[in-house]
Design brief:
The chain is of the alpha/beta class. The protein has 28 helices and 31 strands.
């Protein structure tokens, strides 16, 4: 159960403590010991006891109040007093007692009549305390992310005092609302002396509890609310809610509506109260009423289902007509609360409808790719957004109906047009540029172009980065075994191979082998490309190859249409991986992928290709036998061996049925791949770097200054060999290399190098004897 209030979260944490033991090795605890040396929880203990019938406190003997001396609490723990439910574990609250005090030598407690009977319970029970062994204070419980609530709590003394006074009311606050705010002195004082508008709105959904909070002052508060807001609380929540919904600017109740609009997160259940009220006038102000919003959602579902049943052009026009009627609802309060999901999805569906009505542009494949990279990707992003929304059961039917009617046909027109261009002008070739030092190539499986655009937008928000995105072309066919090699620095080492699996043959030193992920990494090592871990990247130097562990492609094959809901998490993890690589000192991260994909609810249409004509057959591609003719299919050579003929499924069809997600064919979505370059500005804090190089007159001593390099070894290298005797960089950032014979070295190119445990982490190339000075702030 997810806690909705602070009190619920507290009771859950206490109950969880009873389960923290290994039943194979330990007995269940007989009691939970809750020590509170500062007595911070004592004022709110009665409220907590109401929620926890198994909670007992150390104090005067008052069994009806579940309070008693130490010997009685021990009997409670042993089930001899207190009547604790057998399914529950007694929780013993010990005010004025620190857990360290209770855990002292048992002999030291013999003279303490309260604690002596309880001391041995530390062995048969367990403590509820912080990971550092300290008692849970009020602030610690609210603030800690390890066993607490992880809220933002001010550290000021004033806030600490206010927290003690406000804790009783804070216990009943909505936890998700608190998570979105900072708990400071002002917030706490507002709880102690709540604004009347907030109290009225809370009362709408919890009238009895709100009244109980005020106790004897309730009648006074109700009278003040009637005078200030013109609402009579004695008539009940529905009457008051009606007055709030019907209020206009200038009327007494209108501030209550304005307060709700501005802070609706704090009143999560008010929507259900307002939903029970019918609008008095359907022609005037009805949009303010949730009931009318629900009716609009049902009407829109009917409109979309009807539109999808029409012929395609009429269907697109009907969707755009619905958009003109319902677009304004996306700006309404109920849409912001998530109660108008179909109106929200309609924005994506309207974009698809508009794109469908546009004619397919001609030109060459590279021109089509450029248009797709600039604008066409938005249609795929819209379809994906609609599919993500459609995974709510009541939305699936109308949204999927429109996607099948319009998005499928748009995909077909685009794919058929692109295939015609390729058949006429050939398939473009794209090469990964030469990878410069300081650059790591980050491979992501299945990063379609629309995803790369969204990633680009996320990274652009970081002012310390320059981000560039351009289209490229993957291999034929667009499958991982070929595409991953095609976009890697090892592409030039691949030639021919197993056409049936589309696995290129890689040169591995003096041997060779068909593609595997491990062999591809091994093939890059002789090329001076280091394999980099995206989770814990080492300090950057040279050129790198990294692989993003989040597999979008595997998710697509496994989840089909449900991939749409998983994409945001993948992109968030990918952005974090890029930042980790940059923070490790890489100057640039180049993001590449092997292929895009098609995603369509209800599956791609099926195309027939007789098995007798193929060597192997995949979802969107197949290898033809030598005797098979090319005439009936679009046939292109495999990118790594022209003798292997690859038949590509026509349009967006697949050679097998039931595929909602697939790739390997020829379409803009599959074949046009993103090439994303991310570059940081300035140095990374803590990254070792050379600042200056100077020489004595005889050029026998080279003095080096460096930043963030204490303890690293400095050396001079020429033609791959170390010359001279280098020293470690001292705490002032200085080091030197001492040389003997230097006459033959004057004017020769050398490298001044910093190494950590033998690994090169910084380098500057210059001529022997040449003074050099960079910048302390240079990257």
């Amino acid at each position: 159960m997810k806690a909705q209030t602070v009190l619920e979260a507290l009771t859950i944490r206490l109950k969880e403590q009873t389960k923290r033991f290994n039943p194979a090795l330990e007995s269940a605890p007989v009691a939970i010991l809750w020590t509170d040396e500062r007595r911070e929880w004592e004022p709110v203990l009665p409220r907590i006891k109401e929620a926890l019938p198994e909670l007992f406190a150390l104090g005067a003997y008052e069994p009806d109040q579940r309070s008693g001396p130490g010997v009685w609490l021990r009997m409670v723990a042993d089930g001899q007093a207190g009547s604790v439910d057998p399914e529950r574990t007694a929780i013993l609250y010990l005010p004025g007692v620190g857990n360290g005090q209770l855990r002292t030598d048992l002999r030291g407690l013999k003279g303490d009549p309260q604690l002596a009977p309880l001391a041995e319970l530390q062995y048969r029970g367990c403590f509820w305390r912080q990971e550092n062994g300290k008692d849970w204070t009020l602030r610690a419980f609210l603030e800690s992310r390890r066993g607490g609530l992880g809220l933002q709590v001010s550290a000021s003394q004033e806030a600490a005092q206010a927290l003690k006074a406000a804790m009783g009311k804070l216990l009943m606050q909505n936890l998700p609302a608190l998570d979105a705010m900072a708990i400071d002195e002002r917030t706490l004082n507002d709880l102690i002396n709540p604004a009347p508008d907030e109290t009225v709105l809370r009362w709408l959904t919890a009238p009895e509890a709100t009244r109980a909070e005020h106790g004897t002052s309730w009648e006074s508060f109700a009278a003040n609310a009637k005078k200030r807001f013109g609402v009579d609380l004695a008539k009940g929540p529905m009457e008051v809610a009606q007055r709030i919904l019907a209020s206009k600017s200038g009327e007494a109740a209108h501030p209550l509506w304005e307060k709700y609009v501005a802070h609706w997160h704090s009143y999560p259940d008010a929507y259900e109260v307002f939903r029970g009220i019918a609008p008095p006038d359907l022609l005037l102000g009805a949009e303010r009423y949730p009931r009318e919003n629900d009716a609009d959602e049902r009407r829109l579902a009917d409109e979309l289902l009807k539109a999808a049943s029409l012929e395609p052009v009429a269907a697109a026009q009907a969707v755009l007509a619905a958009e003109s009627r319902h677009a304004a609802r996306r700006e309404a309060l109920w849409a912001r609360q998530g109660h108008a999901p179909l109106a929200t999805a309609l924005a994506d569906l309207a974009l698809i409808a508009k794109a469908f009505l546009e004619p397919v542009a001609g030109g060459k494949p590279a021109e089509a790719a450029r248009r797709y990279a600039e604008n066409g990707w938005r249609v795929d992003a819209a379809a994906r957004g609609a599919m993500a929304m459609a995974q709510q059961a009541e939305l699936e039917k109308p949204i999927h109906a429109v996607l099948v009617a319009l998005y499928r046909r748009w995909l077909e027109k685009q794919a058929e047009g692109f295939q015609w261009m390729v058949k006429k002008d050939g398939y473009p070739t794209w090469n990964l540029p030469a990878v410069a030092d300081g650059t790591v190539v980050l491979f992501v499986d299945g990063l379609r172009f629309d995803l790369a655009r969204e990633l680009e937008a996320t990274l652009h928000k970081d002012n310390g980065l320059t981000v560039g995105l351009e289209p490229g072309f993957t291999s034929i066919p667009s499958v991982t075994s070929s595409g991953k090699v095609w976009v890697s620095p090892a592409r030039k080492l691949a030639d021919g191979g197993n056409g049936g699996d589309f696995a290129p043959r890689l040169q591995l030193g003096k041997t060779e082998g068909a593609y595997t992920a491990a062999k591809l990494r091994k093939a890059m090592e002789p090329e001076g490309v280091a394999v980099v871990d995206t989770e814990n990247p080492s300090l950057a130097y040279g050129r790198g190859w990294a692989e993003f562990p989040g597999d979008i492609d595997s998710d697509g094959h496994a989840k089909g249409r449900k991939l749409a809901r998983a994409i945001p998490a993948h992109l968030d993890d990918l952005a974090k991986a890029i930042r980790r690589l940059l923070n490790a000192g890489w100057k640039q991260v180049w993001v590449v992928t092997d292929h895009g994909w098609l995603l369509l609810p209800d599956g791609l249409p099926k195309a027939e290709l007789p098995a007798r004509l193929t060597e192997t057959k995949w979802g969107r591609c197949a290898v033809l036998k030598d005797a098979a003719a090319d005439a009936d299919w679009l046939v292109l050579p495999w990118s790594f061996d022209p003798a292997v003929r690859v038949a590509l499924a026509p349009g967006i069809s697949a050679f097998s049925s039931g595929r909602e997600y697939d790739h390997g064919g020829l379409s803009l979505q599959e074949s046009v791949v993103p090439f994303l370059r991310v570059q940081r500005h300035g140095p990374v804090a803590g990254q070792p770097r050379l600042v200056a190089v100077s020489w004595n007159i005889r050029r026998t001593i080279c003095t080096v200054r460096a930043n963030d390099a204490a303890g690293l070894t400095v050396s001079i290298e020429r033609l791959g060999s170390t010359i001279g005797d280098g020293e470690a960089i001292d705490n002032d950032g200085k080091g030197r290399v001492v040389l003997e014979e230097v006459d033959d070295l004057i004017g020769e190119q050398i490298a001044v190098v910093l190494r950590s445990d033998g690994q090169k982490v910084a380098e500057e190339r210059l001529n022997f004897g040449e003074a050099w000075e960079g910048s302390a702030n240079a990257a």
